[in-house]
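Supplementary Text 2. Reproducibility record for the structural model of the 280-residue chain.

All settings were left at their defaults, and a single model was retained for analysis rather than an ensemble. We include the record here because the model underlies the residue-level annotations in Supplementary Table 4.
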Amino acid sequence: MTTGNNKPVIALVSNIYAKTDNVLNVDFPVTDDAGDVVNVSIEDNPSFVKLQTQGGSNYRIVVDAHIDHIGWYTVTLKATDQKGAVAVKTVGISVSDKNTRSVYVNYGSVTKTAPAPWNNFLGQRTANSTLANLKDETNTATPFSVTMVSSWSGVSDLGHITGNNSGVSDGAGPKTIRISGLDDTKKYNIVFMASQNEGTNATVEYASGTVKDTLNARYNTNQTANLNGLASVAGQITVVATRVSGGTTNILNGLVIEEYDPSLVILNPVNMYAETFDKS
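Retained model, structure tokens:
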């Protein structure tokens, strides 16, 4: 009896999580029917991601990332045997700053789920709704939680399409957000993202104590409001978002919690961009 040729099997996880300046080795096997000869290759890999042969059916992904490589990447592994059978595996690679632990929270319509490392907090937010046990950028569960103390009556799908264009919205008064489960011996940066692809003034001031920043979501694609160097009290940080400067609506697409050691005086700059000021 003659049977058909089976495809190789690539036994590798779907997501790899790396930190800057720390070489990460991820070993995995590629198997096939006895006697088959398999060739394994990698495609679309950035320069800091390499595929190594370890002998036999064993392989290794090496991630040697640095500060310039922070972000999310997708690579493709392909295994082909001599009979023409092909197996393809898509793998996501996340690179994050070695000096911080970051948690990402995505807001928006219930159909606008964002992939890891985002924690999805979708739909209209009722008062005191909470998303707990948030996962960080390495897919590790944390004690962090986010509570929308104030209700958000609407959901907007009018954000610029840089990925996920949705968020929660409300035209009423100030909105209070409480972040809990924090470590009082650490420091925190809280980053707010808001985008609205139309001309309504959506200027909002985010404030935690005396630390404040302002963001207009109108036509915004690259700016954030940043509350830096915050210290939690009894494991909590509270932020109030208030419409200012004639703003008529409050938009929130996402927030990021960055935790770091107070001994770090200056963190690595990320998400920097330049704009021309004038023609001179």
